[in-house]
Design a protein that fits this description.
Distance between the termini: 41 Å
Oligomer: single chain
Strand content: 15-25%
Bound molecules: nicotinamide-adenine-dinucleotide
Shape: globular
Length: about 250
């Protein structure tokens, strides 16, 4: 395969759907061999099928990113399949329940923060160990516009997405001299199953969300995927510790 990711091995968590699937497909299109990790087996196999149908290489590894042993095994499996790990997109996530700070339950707090904050930390913990052995690598973590500004009725989501930006910066400065770059992407509202809209839906809520973006529309998973490929690639060689908004201008006002 030719392309800006030729010869590289990339790991994508949350690769069974939405942004993760789009990023996995774009990384494969650019020549990377891709390890698709997710809890959702059927979706993961579909992502691998889509990549192979387009002429790329991918393998699925069932993983719950909030479980330390599974994350360690995920990285070991990536190495067992493809012999190395150059890039990782730590993207698995859930919205959790919509409730105010007062009404947020402990169960929801733990579930959301375990997947986002603990999950991204665990992924980096094992990915970076391997990248240090290889002498470099590039990591992108999925934060959100909710990592840059507050949103109502999602305290655990907002806190964990802000935390992902902090974790990203901490790891970026820890491992910069080891050739490992660590950045995050902060998507605006992106049309994926997480938002729960049908593509053709024209509801009041969708219109309200759309209006929040100066570009006048919601984003596509592919638009986030392209930013991820770029941050993973050598084209972004002097960029580390950055939180890149891919948000149609949402946080600009
Ligand atoms: P999605 O629901 O389409 O995909 C999320 C994927 O993560 C699913 O395949 C799901 O199975 C997987 N996942 C969930 N928990 C997991 C776990 N514990 N271990 C492994 N995999 C797990 O949603 P999406 O919109 O593609 O979301 C991807 C990321 O983007 C999330 O981190 C989300 O918070 C973030 N994000 C999404 C939007 C948006 O508007 N869609 C905006 C900002 C940020």
């Amino acid at each position: 395969m030719t392309g800006i990711m030729a010869g590289k091995v990339a790991l994508v968590t949350g690769g069974s759907s939405g942004i993760g699937r789009a990023a996995a497909s774009a990384l494969a299109r650019e020549g990377a061999r891709v390890v698709v990790a997710d809890m959702n087996v059927e979706g993961g196999k579909n992502t691998v099928h889509l990549i192979e149908k387009a002429g790329g290489q991918a393998v699925f590894v069932k993983t719950d990113v909030s479980k330390p042993a599974e994350v360690e095994q995920m990285v070991n499996n990536a190495i067992a399949h493809y012999g190395r790990l150059d890039c990782a997109f730590n993207n698995a996530g859930i919205l959790g329940d919509m409730a105010t700070t007062v009404d947020c339950t402990e169960e929801n707090w733990d579930r959301v923060t375990n997947i986002h904050l603990k999950g991204v930390w665990l992924c980096m913990k094992y990915e970076i160990q391997r990248m240090l052995q290889q002498g470099g690598g590039a990591i992108v973590n999925t934060s959100s516009i909710a990592g840059l500004v507050g949103l109502k009725t999602a305290p655990a989501y907002v806190a964990s997405k802000h935390g992902i930006i902090g974790l990203t910066k901490a790891a970026a400065i820890e491992y910069a001299r080891s050739g490992i770059r660590v950045n995050s992407v902060c998507p605006g509202y992106i049309e994926t199953p997480m938002l729960g809209f049908q593509p053709s839906e024209d509801s009041a809520l969708k219109k309200k969300m759309t209006a929040l973006h100066p570009l006048g529309r919601l984003g596509t998973p592919e638009e986030v995927g392209e930013a991820v490929v770029w941050l993973c690639s050598d084209a972004a060689s002097f960029i580390t510790g950055h939180a890149l908004a891919v948000d149609g201008g949402y946080v600009a006002h």
